[in-house]
Amino acid sequence: MPGSWMTERDLTTLESLHASLGTRLSKYHKPELREAEEELVDFFKRWFYYCNNVMATNVAGNEPFYDWEDQVYFDLMGNISRGEGFKEHFGAIGPYMNNANIAFKELEITATAPDAVHTTQLQRFKGVAKDGRAFDFTYRLTQILRKTEDSWKIVHEHLSFPVDMQTGRANFTDSNWDMREAYNLSKGKQNL
Predict the structure, then answer these.
(1) Taking every annotated instance into account, which residue ranges of this chain make up the domain SnoaL-like (predicted)?
(2) Is a pLDDT exceeding 60 seen at residue 181?
(3) Contact 5/103 with Cβ under 8 angstroms?
(4) Can you say whether residue 109 is alpha, beta or left, with left for phi > 0 and alpha for psi between -120 and 50 degrees?
(5) Which of 73, 75, 84, 164 is the least buried, fewest Cβ under 10 Å from its Cβ?
(6) What digits encode the pLDDT tens for the residues 80-129?
(7) Which is it for strands 116-128 and 99-113: parallel, antiparallel or unpaired?
(8) How many angstroms separate the CA atoms of 79 and 82, rounded?
């Protein structure tokens, strides 16, 4: 169903992924790059499976997914530039959020070259942290992936929450947040 939350079990084909979008497909898809986009459907099946079933007990299991040396990460909790900082961050956060699941919607995979892809999606991260605190937040995620030899690697991730410009507060849970309403654009005013 378009715009519905999905897991790795829902990723079957590029066509079904496109059909799941609640918006139109980007005009930047090129037929000659379809193979790269199809490879990324498989990549994301494995990546979401890892996040939902393996990460809590095997943080090192994320090795196949990231280019550790070149990764640039704009996280919800700060920025991490290239190098070991990202690996340490992932190693700390994975076990802490050991009883969690990630669902996604609006995942669009767009190849820009045979070895370069960018993705956009919404993710919902929900569970219970190691200290017993429940969490449930929805954020936007943009990723850039590169293909080296025969494997795809994430080289950049940018996570963000929408911000209500009237209050200056982040919206942690609403994936249907309306920017026009936050700016009062629907009433012909801007409250910036």
Answers:
(1) 98-163
(2) no
(3) yes
(4) beta
(5) 84
(6) 677 667 777 777 776 666 778 899 999 999 999 999 999 999 999 898 88
(7) antiparallel
(8) 10
The span from the CA of 19 to the CA of 32, in Å, is: 20
* Cβ contact 61:94 at 8 Å: no
Three-state SS at 105: strand
Q: Which of 38, 36, 31 is nearest to 14 (CA)?
A: 38
184 residue type, one letter: N
Helical spans, DSSP H, in the chain:
14-19, 34-53, 84-96, 179-182
Q: What is the pTM of this model?
A: 0.82
Give the span between the Cα atoms of 66 and 152, in whole angstroms: 8
3-state secondary structure of 149: coil
Helix (H, G, I), strand (E, B) or coil at 77: coil
Residues in Cβ contact with 140 at an 8 Å cutoff, skipping those fewer than 6 apart: 120, 121, 122, 123, 159, 160, 161, 162
The rounded percent of the chain whose pLDDT value lies above 70 is 77
Confidence at 1, pLDDT banded by 50, 70, 90: low
Gap between the Cα atoms of 29 and 26, Å rounded: 6
